[in-house]
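>> received
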Amino acid sequence: MLQSITNFTGFSSEIIVILLITAFGAGLVRGFSGFALSATVMAVMANFVPPIQLAPICLCLELVASMMMMRGGLKQADMGVVWGLVIGTVIGTPIGYLILVNIEATTARLVALVIITTLSLLLFMRVRANFLNTRPGLYISGIGAGFAGIATVGGMVVALYVLAREKAAAEMRGSLVMYLMISLVSTTLFQILFDILTIEAIKRAAVMIPILIIGILIGSAFFRPSLEKYYKPFCLLTLIAICIIGLVRLVI
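>> returned
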């Protein structure tokens, strides 16, 4: 069976095994936190598969995850915040691509990771980031997420904004879920426009989806009232860990 999957995806058997394990882990994190699926896949798999090939795979996985979690997210999300972030993202994404013409994607990713790591550490240490919890901060965060999308860390910028608002864990998680669901529309259009989304990527994502679904279901089961006090620390530590892995990979 493994050989059939290898032939179907064009990946080696070793890559397939790592990909499936990563899909399960990313599903667990997404199910509990409401974000970090793509960031987890990129952090683990970018050493084995070029990021340009991972981006459309992540898009397909995010679509499945968002459809699974949309119902709960819609009930719990602050849609005013979600739409503000989406508007900012739509503005920021083309700006990011225009800037990308003049700088390397590696440089953009390095800057984004350093900023996110710094802000995550400050939030984890309970230093108040009041500038994020404002109306201008809402749109600036959305624009920043659109720009950071060229470095595959856009969702992490939004996560930082949501976590800085000091709202209930259910609302934070729901807002992240709905933002990711709605922003998939613009992401899909950009990937089609730049010929990134391919049939081969869809086939590779299809192999990961069953394992991803299991991970999401288990991760979602852990999101319960008794564990809500661990939600924000878990999300911040997840952001910090992914950033550190990304920074180490860029430096080495």
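>> The chain has a mean pLDDT of 81.
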